[in-house]
Amino acid sequence: MLTTTDQQKKCREDVEAVENFSKRYYDIFDTRRHDIDKFYQAQAKLVWNGMEFNGQSAIAKHLVSLPATRHYIYALDFFPMNDLFPNEAKTYQVFVSGGVIYGPPESTSVPKEKRLFSHIFVLTVDVNSSIWVIANECFRFHE
């Protein structure tokens, strides 16, 4: 059984891991989207504003097809999913809210509007590669 000090240390490590993953994910999404597939499990699922995409390659293909973006994260929270996945100590449901601007940053001819969004994903450690990956997610604009 973990001591209180061990539990606090684990909690700090988890917070750091989730925050670092989220920061890297949106950075790659905005700057090197062709590498976005590395953030997903092979059998991952995405629901993007009601449209469903199944599998790492289908998700990457959809995300790469979107215009250039700049994301702004306003809030990030996460919860362990130990009740649903008792054998997977490193599985979390992550909640992100923020704004995103579409279009190339150098373009001034088209006015850019920041769209608010919610992004919820299940983050876990891949058993084969031991890296953090998204197992499934839901992205939705606030209309």
From TrEMBL:
A single GO BP: protein transport
Subcellular location: Cytoplasm; Nucleus
Domain of life: Eukaryota
GO cellular component: cytoplasm; nucleus
Alphabetized InterPro entries for the sequence: NTF2 (IPR045875), NTF2-like_dom_sf (IPR032710), NTF2_dom (IPR002075), Nuclear_transport_factor_2_euk (IPR018222)
Keyword Ubl conjugation: no
Keywords: Cytoplasm, Nucleus, Protein transport, Transport
Gene3D superfamilies: 3.10.450.50
All residue ranges annotated as the NTF2 domain in the record: 17-141
Subcellular location, principal: cytoplasm
Role according to the record: Has a role in nuclear-cytoplasmic transport of proteins and mRNAs.
PANTHER family: NUCLEAR TRANSPORT FACTOR 2 (PTHR12612)
UniProt name for this protein: NTF2-related export protein
